[in-house]
């Protein structure tokens, strides 16, 4: 058994019918040119007949406050195979993902599913993988999927993602006394962080009085993004040339993440203006930040940074400058703490916000207006049974008071964007993809950057 991390418990507690708490990934592959017509059927059959044994976290199911091994693992429950109706356009693919991303995972089983989707135009197929956020965070899920694929286009072996590292020695199950001892030890460790955390909290209270770049958990404005959600979802995805963000970042002497936030902010500003719903005060984004200090790929090791998106500012350069300063201010605070102190600090500062999200009592009064997450991805081309991975699009969670999520990940020379929204709360959210492109062009024009070859259009 493996004890649930406190953050894992939070993600499980947040889940309800209209609020699934799983994350997902859409992986788009190109079928090899010399592949037989039965390529997909052969791949699916090989997976079903695989003798590999599922490993953690894929063989773990809930048992109270612990992850326990599923002794009745049923692959047919987790692994599916479908075909899109002809002509298999990306439009139909995204509609299917939108529907599938809205359905709850069965808590009586390990909390994940994998679907192979064939019949996609241009000789392609896809894999949609979803897994509960209590099991992995964004960094961990990216590591798990990278292990599933190969850098060798000629490698033909098919090891299912849920069986990677299945040959490693199986850990011994800790006894009850050892588990209790571990829990007590963890509590003691958290208690030792208290003095440093309270010192940081005192400094934060003082800083809030004079520092205009300090972002508190009480300043997010009421916004159309902060509504109760239904079970309906809209998933939209697009690839953008990474070099365009690099050039803007270099010209402004900012980080890539600053520019990602600035581009998203500019697109959001235009989207809300089109709906006549732009608040007078700046939107606040919650930016998940990994504090994982090892190479593990299970559980959650994240905290959050609150970023001022400066959506009230007309000038795009000024907007980017404000964003950069607010992010830098939050990062400087965390640099003074250890990972354990950061977790304790975050738990204290955002406790009220978490309780509000959990209860849904005040959906229009949130600590932040939306989540924007940027996860580093593979830099080399990846293959699965000879099929080249063309793109990977992340799909994250929305919940009451947070009807929109923008998650980005890098792959090769592209920035892959996955947008998830409550379809009933936010109309035409797919227009954000067009507005993101326009936002990039805005910065390129203001900075007099030559146009690069533009993006890989998802079609």
Structure description:
The protein is an alpha+beta fold and 459 residues long. The chain folds into 2 domains: 2-163, 2-Layer Sandwich (Chloramphenicol Acetyltransferase), CATH 3.30.559; 194-378 and 396-446, Chloramphenicol Acetyltransferase, CATH 3.30.559. The chain is 36% helix and 22% strand. It has 13 helices and 15 strands. It has helices spanning 6-14, 39-48, 75-78, 90-101, 138-148, 176-192, 194-210, 242-252, 256-274, 316-335, 339-349, 351-359, 431-446, and strands spanning 2-3, 22-30, 60-63, 66-69, 79-83, 112-120, 124-132, 233-241, 284-290, 302-308, 370-375, 383-384, 387-395, 404-411, 414-422. It has a 6-stranded mixed sheet with strand order 5-6-7-2-13-12, with helices on both faces. Strands 8-15-14-11-9-10 form a 6-stranded mixed sheet, with helices on both faces. A hairpin with a 2-residue loop joins β14 (404-411) and β15 (414-422). α7 (194-210) crosses α11 (339-349) and α8 (242-252) packs across α9 (256-274).
Proportion of residues in helical segments:
25-40%
The gross shape turns out to be globular
Order of helices and strands: EHEHEEHEHEEHHHEHHEEHHHEEEEEH
Unreliable stretches: 166-173, 183-191, 292-300
Q: Give the class-level CATH name of the largest domain.
A: Alpha Beta
* Class per helix and strand makeup: alpha+beta
What is the CA–CA distance across the termini?
45 Å
Query: Kindly state the mean pLDDT as a whole number?
Result: 83
Looking at the chains present, what oligomeric state does this protein adopt? single chain
Count all strands and give the number.
15
Strand order across the largest sheet: 5-6-7-2-13-12
Corresponding CATH superfamily of the largest domain: Nonribosomal peptide synthetase, condensation domain
The proportion of residues in beta strands is 15-25%
CATH topology of the largest domain: Chloramphenicol Acetyltransferase
Helix segment count?
Answer: 13
CATH architecture descriptor text of the largest domain: 2-Layer Sandwich
């Amino acid at each position: 058994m493996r004890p649930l991390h406190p953050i894992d418990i939070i993600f499980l507690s947040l889940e309800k019918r209209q609020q699934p708490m799983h994350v997902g990934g859409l992986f788009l592959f190109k079928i090899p040119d010399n592949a037989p017509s039965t390529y997909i059927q052969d791949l699916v059959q090989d997976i079903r007949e695989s003798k590999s044994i599922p490993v953690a976290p894929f063989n773990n199911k809930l048992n109270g406050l612990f992850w326990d091994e599923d002794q009745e693992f049923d692959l047919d429950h987790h692994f599916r195979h479908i075909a899109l109706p002809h002509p298999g356009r990306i439009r139909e693919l995204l509609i299917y993902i939108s529907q599938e991303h809205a359905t709850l995972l069965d808590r009586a089983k390990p909390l994940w599913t994998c679907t192979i989707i064939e019949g996609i135009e241009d000789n392609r197929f896809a894999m949609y993988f979803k897994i509960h956020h209590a099991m992995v965070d964004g960094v961990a899920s990216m590591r798990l999927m990278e292990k599933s694929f190969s850098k060798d286009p000629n490698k033909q072996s098919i090891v299912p993602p849920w069986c990677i590292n299945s040959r490693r020695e199986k850990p011994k199950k800790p006894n009850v006394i050892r588990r209790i001892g571990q829990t007590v030890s963890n509590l003691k460790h958290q208690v030792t962080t208290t003095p440093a955390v309270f010192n940081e909290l005192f400094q934060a209270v003082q800083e809030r009085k004079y520092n205009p770049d300090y972002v508190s958990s009480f300043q997010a404005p009421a916004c159309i993004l902060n509504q109760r959600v239904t079970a309906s979802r809209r998933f939209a995805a697009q690839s953008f040339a990474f070099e365009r963000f690099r050039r803007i970042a270099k010209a402004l002497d900012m980080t890539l993440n600053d520019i990602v936030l600035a581009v998203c902010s500019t697109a959001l500003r235009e989207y809300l203006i089109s709906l006549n719903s732009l608040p007078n005060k700046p939107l606040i984004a919650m930016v998940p930040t990994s504090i994982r200090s090892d190479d593990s790929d299970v559980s959650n090791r994240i905290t959050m940074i609150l970023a001022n998106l400066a959506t009230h500012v007309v000038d795009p350069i000024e907007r980017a400058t404000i964003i950069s300063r607010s992010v830098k201010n939050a990062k400087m605070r965390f640099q003074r703490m250890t990972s354990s102190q950061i977790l304790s600090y975050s738990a204290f500062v955002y406790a009220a916000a978490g309780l509000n999200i959990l209860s849904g009592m005040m959906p229009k009064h949130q600590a932040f207006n939306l989540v924007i997450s940027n996860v580093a991805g593979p830099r080399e081309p990846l293959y699965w049974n000879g099929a080249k991975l063309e793109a990977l699009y992340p799909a994250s969670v929305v919940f009451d008071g947070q009807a929109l999520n923008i998650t980005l990940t890098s792959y090769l020379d592209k920035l892959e964007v996955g947008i998830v929204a409550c379809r009933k709360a936010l109309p035409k959210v797919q227009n954000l993809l067009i507005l993101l492109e326009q936002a990039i062009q805005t910065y390129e024009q203001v900075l007099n950057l030559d146009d690069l070859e533009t993006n890989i259009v998802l079609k």
